[in-house]
Design brief:
The structure holds two protein chains of two kinds.
Chain A (H helix, E strand, L loop, with lengths): L5 H13 L1 H12 L2 H17 L10 H20 L8 H10 L11 H11 L3 H12 L4 H8 L3 H28 L1
Helix pairs in contact in A: 2-3, 2-4, 2-5, 3-4, 6-9, 8-9
Chain B lengths: L5 H11 L5 H11 L3 H22 L8 H13 L25 H4 L7 H20 L16 E5 L4 E2 L11 E2 L4 E5 L1 E6 L3 E15 L2 E12 L8 E4 L3 E5 L3 E6 L5 E8 L1 E6 L2 E7 L2 E6 L8 E4 L11 E2 L27 E3 L5 E8 L2 E9 L3 E11 L5 E11 L2 E12 L8 E8 L20 E8 L8 E15 L1 E13 L14
Helix pairs in contact in B: 1-2
Classes of the chains: A mainly alpha, B alpha+beta.
Chain lengths: 179, 506
């Protein structure tokens, strides 16, 4: 980390932290598995840190970080594809292409902020389910066992909640864009 | 309405919930190749998934001052849940205050996915503070508040801390308080890069970025060449001063004496202001901690019980295969590798690097081109006759055809047959590839690690050393030579060189 200027260093850290949610979202979308995504996310952050001195502060951070995240995902694919369910590189490239126009450079991730409001609108039982699945990291199978439900049935329930949140977020972002 | 049929919706639900079977996942993967609507909906929902995970991991971050960061970290440790994943430092305060009636998941930062950012921020703040320690501002004030710590925890597998309630996480910043281990070994980095391995039962205090005090246990210290004067204090007014080295020190359980073993470079041992001994590599002494009148006793140097790096690594700039991936370039970038000289100049070589299991990986390749890649060992002359250099490298092929890769250790620019090793790589099979580029038409040979050893003669002493790789195309339309993991170590001739730490070979 050869950056010399503390202000420069702080500015880099600021950009890095500002983009954490977006980097995480891209990686999770590309690899689809949260445990693998977590490994890649941490590796990506370390690479970004190692390359901090190479970052040109006059240019947007997100394309630079996104390219590095993509490389890390491909590296993970190289070592994981034999024993994990991950997309092949062609699908990953399609996903990256779809995200190519994602040029959000704001200080905060609007999607993340919109989610807070959308979560609050969910019924209590759905919030509890998300809390168990995403907060306490309880597996879907275990949750299904606890609730006496089938795994696929619970997956569909989670899917409906996910879609409701997606619709809510899209609606809020669209409303803000039109405001 | 998404327009997806029920079967597709089911697949989407199973994949996003992580419960799809391999067949279901394969079907979903195949569908994503050409179904734009499904791809868009997958991305839309996966981003929600990511946001929910992130919401439970941390909220939109903002960087505070160093002191605030340290306070946050301590708070996060205290608040770790018993059934939660291993806790990680939380340095990221919420950007928006949680509403009193907000759901539990919206208020509670879980920290799991904040790990890397937290450690990075800690490192950044530590680095800034250390810089102020070394180069204080002219007004005598550090610019960023109080120091968050002197040492950073790098690894603590199987460690049992003396205080069971103390559960530091990777990246934890230690201050000046004693670090007490009941058993196991913890790795720390202190100041500007001194790497310590503390084996318990042990007690260590970090006095400042350049000095630690060992009161019990075993400590292995590696100090990079660019850091000098790092000091380990011991009871009995003893000090071990680094002279660019790697050494181990252990205190016997009764606290009566210490043994000092030097694995590389040299150390100076002092008692108070009185120099006791200067130990070069391969020497060891036992010194009394309780009786200053007892002269140090020379003993046989022994690495057993310590954790020295394996072999002495000669400074090659092999970590400088620098590359910033470029979005528009789907393949590797063609960038001059700093530290290495490539001849003839060509656009047909490249470098790439990526992180695997926390280790920076990079490789160099010649793409359908011949050439030489070489560099001089940094700040190094052959020190003695009868020493063995071991050059290790990993090579493989990613193209069609055959090439020969010749590795050479050049002493005083004179190659010798004893130092040459030539390996032929043949790739002529068309088929799918595991290449990370996804260019499936290229075959990929297994990665193989090679070793070239050379024992020095009296004629070599005092001469510079270079490492040279030469790629020669033998036949075929598009041979591509890939090179990685170039290390050069130096051992006594009678020592069996230790292989580098095992790394995954896809």
């Amino acid at each position: 980390m050869p950056m010399r200027d503390p202000q420069e260093l702080e500015a880099f850290v600021q950009r890095l932290t500002d983009h954490q949610s977006r980097i995480w979202a891209l990686i999770l979308t590309l690899v689809s598995k949260a445990d693998l995504a977590q490994e890649v996310f941490q590796e990506t952050n370390l690479v970004l840190w190692r390359k901090a001195a190479e970052y040109d502060a006059s240019r947007p951070f997100w394309p630079w970080a996104k390219a590095i995240a993509r490389t890390q995902v491909l590296a993970a694919w190289e070592r994981m594809s034999r024993d994990r369910l991950v997309f092949d590189p062609a699908v990953m490239e399609r996903i990256v292409d779809r995200c190519a126009n994602d040029q959000e450079e704001g200080r905060t991730d609007g999607r993340q902020l919109a989610l807070v409001d959308c979560l609050a609108k969910l019924p209590a039982d759905q919030r509890e389910l998300l809390d168990a699945r995403y907060g306490r990291q309880v597996t879907v199978k275990r949750l299904a066992d606890e609730q006496g439900r089938s795994v696929s049935g619970l997956a569909v329930t989670l899917h409906r909640i996910r879609r409701a949140l997606a619709d809510c977020i899209d609606h809020k972002l669209a409303a803000e864009a039109n405001a | 309405m998404t327009g997806l049929d029920a079967h597709t919706e089911q697949l989407l639900a199973l994949v996003l919930s992580g419960v799809a079977t391999s067949d279901q996942f394969a079907e979903f993967n195949a569908r994503l190749h050409d179904d734009d609507a499904l791809l868009d909906e997958y991305i839309r929902l996966a981003r929600v998934d990511a946001a929910v995970y992130f919401q439970h991991g941390c909220v939109a971050p903002a960087v505070g001052a160093a002191g605030g960061a340290a306070a946050e970290r301590d708070a996060s440790l205290a608040g770790a849940e018993p059934d939660a994943p291993p806790p990680v430092a939380k340095l990221i305060p919420a950007a928006e205050p949680a509403q009193p009636d907000a759901p539990r998941h919206a208020r509670r930062p879980l920290m799991r996915y904040a790990a890397a950012a937290a450690v990075l921020i800690a490192a950044a703040l530590i680095a800034i503070t250390m810089r102020h320690d070394v180069e204080p501002a002219s007004d005598g004030h550090a610019g960023l508040g109080s120091a968050p710590g002197v040492a950073t925890l790098l690894n603590a597998d199987s460690v049992e801390w003396a205080d069971p309630s103390f559960e530091p996480t990777i990246g934890h910043a230690f201050g000046h308080a004693p670090i007490r281990l009941a058993r196991g070994a913890a790795q720390l980095v202190v100041g500007q890069g001194a790497a310590l391995t503390l084996a318990g039962p042990a007690e260590l205090r970090c006095l400042d970025p350049h000095r630690v005090r060992l009161d019990a246990g075993t400590l292995t210290t590696f100090v990079p060449h660019n850091v000098t004067g790092f000091t380990v204090d011991l009871p009995g007014d003893l000090s071990i001063v680094d002279l660019g080295t790697e050494f181990g020190v252990t205190i016997d359980p009764a606290g009566r004496y210490a043994t000092v073993h030097v694995f590389d470079g040299a150390v100076r041992v002092t008692r108070g202001s009185q120099p006791l001994d200067r130990l070069p590599a391969g020497r060891a002494i036992r010194v009394s901690l309780i009786d200053a009148s007892v002269a140090p006793e020379a003993i046989v140097a022994d690495a057993a019980g310590f954790a020295p790096r394996r072999g002495r690594t000669i400074a090659l700039d092999n970590a400088s295969f620098e590359d910033v991936p470029v979005v528009s370039n789907r393949g590797w970038d063609f960038i001059e590798p700093s530290g290495w000289r490539v001849t003839p100049p060509s656009q047909e070589y490249g470098v790439n690097e990526y992180m695997v299991d926390g280790v920076m990986r990079q490789h160099f390749f010649w793409n359908n081109a011949e050439g030489v890649l070489e560099q001089a060992a940094t700040d190094h002359l052959v020190p003695a006759a009868g020493m063995t250099y071991t050059l290790r490298y990993t090579a493989w092929s990613m193209g069609n055809g055959a090439y020969q890769l010749t590795a050479n250790l050049m002493i005083d620019d004179q190659p010798g047959d004893a130092r040459r090793r030539a390996d032929r790589f043949d790739m002529s099979v068309q088929g799918p590839s595991d290449a990370p580029t996804g260019r499936v038409r290229d075959p990929l040979s297994p990665k193989r690690t090679f070793e070239l050893r050379y024992t020095t003669t009296p004629n070599d002493v005092g001469k510079p050393l270079r490492v040279r790789f030469e790629m020669t195309r033998l036949e075929g339309p598009r041979p591509q030579a890939c090179l990685d993991d170039v290390t050069l170590t130096l051992d006594p001739a009678d020592a069996k060189p230790q292989p580098p730490a095992p790394r995954e070979q896809p």
